DNA sequence: ACGTTGTTCAACCAAATGGTTGACAACACT
DNA sequence: AGTGTTGTCAACCATTTGGTTGAACAACGT
């Protein structure tokens, strides 16, 4: 279908699914249990769960007739790794830029109007 | 349209958009610049940028004809906050469960077959 | 065997998504 | 003034998504 990271992000892009994850963080739940608060059919909830399962966010084991749903929190790491990597990169870049701007203030350069992105583009 | 958290997750659910964000973490880019590596029309890239902009992940300022795209890394916090909250909650639950199981081992309870989720459901 | 409970599968529908092409707006360069 | 560069807007198309209903399946209690 798509790479897992895409599936995880897509799965969490829906408020109902995020709410399910939130509740599953507290305790495992059956499908009926999960469906109770929402004003949609049981089948719709089952579909949402399939999306979460395909993303690797939950697993379902069998227990008599019930299908307890269990949150697999490790998948969160996939996202945080991705996010943190680029957040850090961006922040480092901004602080480098701050340094450049501070230097320009001191020097009173005549290239002060040049935009930040060009500075960055040519910076080492 | 939808809440920002949903928009941010949805925006990052697309590999092309994630790649754009990755490149924007390094340096600001113009639209043409951004579009170069991808095998899609410029208009498609423009649409992707609109999605990222609506999510608050990027801003576009005007500079002559060019429209430099700039990454707004603060929005990442929205996601990490959400993710970390439930990850922590889930992890705490698991360690509590570990404690319960350990206690059961000691006691050699006859309810050992009872599933974890039921233990959790009635715990605390 | 039979009904009940819990859950999924199948077919369908409306809206959103990601892509296309064509027109055009804004600016820069002669 | 005329041309090229950079980017967006509008209309269209195919696919995906989130929802519905109705039927089916699976595991129990009787």
UniProtKB/TrEMBL annotation, chains A, B:
Compositional bias per record (Low complexity), positions renumbered to this chain: 111-124
UniProt cross-references to InterPro entries, sorted A to Z: ArsR-like_HTH, HTH_ArsR_DNA-bd_dom, WH-like_DNA-bd_sf, WH_DNA-bd_sf
Any one Pfam family match given in the protein's UniProt record, by short name: HTH_20
Residue ranges occupied by any HTH arsR-type domain in the UniProt entry: 1-90
Gene3D superfamilies, A to Z: Winged helix-like DNA-binding domain superfamily/Winged helix DNA-binding domain
Classification via PANTHER family: SLL0088 PROTEIN, TRANSCRIPTIONAL REGULATORY PROTEIN
Record's protein name: Metalloregulator ArsR/SmtB family transcription factor
């Amino acid at each position: 279908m798509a790479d897992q990271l895409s599936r995880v992000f897509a799965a969490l892009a829906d408020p109902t699914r995020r709410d399910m994850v939130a509740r599953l963080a507290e305790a495992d739940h059956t499908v009926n249990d999960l469906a109770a608060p929402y004003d949609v059919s049981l089948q719709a909830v089952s579909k949402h769960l399939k999306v979460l399962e395909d993303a690797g966010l939950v697993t379902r084991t069998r227990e008599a007739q019930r299908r307890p749903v269990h949150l697999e929190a490790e998948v969160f790491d996939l996202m945080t790794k991705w996010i943190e990597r680029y957040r850090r990169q961006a922040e480092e870049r901004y602080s480098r830029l701050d340094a450049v701007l501070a230097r320009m203030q001191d020097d009173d350069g005549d290239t002060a109007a040049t935009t930040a992105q060009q500075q960055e583009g040519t910076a080492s």
